[in-house]
Amino acid sequence: MLATEIEYAIETQDLVKIYKTGKVQAVNGLNLQIKKGEIYALIGANGSGKTTSINMISGALFPTSGTIKVLGHEIPRNRRLITNYIGLAPQDYSIYEDLSLEENVRFFSRLYGMSKGDFEPKFEELLKILRLEEKRKALVKNLSGGMKRRTSIACSLIHSPKIVFFDEATVGVDPVLRSFFWEYFRSLKDKGVTLVITSHVMDEAERADRIGLMRAGKLIAEGTPDELKQKHNAATIEEIFIELSEGEIIDE
Ligand SMILES: Nc1ncnc2c1ncn2[C@@H]1O[C@H](COP(=O)(O)OP(=O)(O)O)[C@@H](O)[C@H]1O
Ligand SMILES: [Mg+2]
Hints:
Number of strands: 10
Order of helices and strands: EEEHEEHEHHHEHEHEEHH
CATH topology of the domain at 8-92 and 162-245: Rossmann fold
Structural class: alpha/beta
Low-confidence stretches: none
Distance between the termini: 42 Å
Shape: globular
CATH class of the domain at 8-92 and 162-245: Alpha Beta
Oligomer: single chain
Largest sheet: 6 strands, mixed
Number of helices: 9
Bound molecules: adenosine-5'-diphosphate, magnesium ion
């Protein structure tokens, strides 16, 4: 069904979101082209529109205007077609507190129509990578915040999606574990998986293939970490961010 010649995993054109109850235009003409197999970091201060963008692209939220294509399919019109190809670990993750970690991941696997035979090996792989082996039977409500977040990541990856969205998924993650995550991200990339990662933590972005810097619902800079640093004559992405943000405060 999905043509292999499609170069871009994600394309958006003039994407706009105005929330009915919102005071500002949350996304204000976003143009993205993310290649297949790319690790793309969408970074920006809180309120810059990252979550709204990700939610529209993954089909969870209707845009006000503009177009979105995911693996060549127009979204939201064709969002059901791409459900099984997408994994989303939302910023405000929704997992069931009264179920165990394993029951939660199993629940998501059923939503994606996975067979038991496919579930077991993938689940074991994810438990190992996410360092959750000892917690598989624990009720989610008894897990730490970081472990809940990792459970949400497991739910988003169980069906081996072609495109993965991690919305602030590595926030507050221990640096050693974060390194393991990035190793895993790259192994996914090597298999052709596209990863879109949002973060308001700048050093997170340095590891991505390409970075899009958002401010007030728009991209204000884009490129590989090296391209951006060269262009702005900066040593770090954080420096560029500070320069382009004109004093805007990250209120985390
Ligand atoms: N459900 C909502 N209703 C109204 N306004 C919202 C809603 N969600 C986000 N916003 C507003 O939209 C803007 C962008 O928010 P968001 O996409 O969450 O940014 P980010 O993820 O970069 O922090 C902010 O001004 C935020 O207050
Ligand atoms: Mg957000």
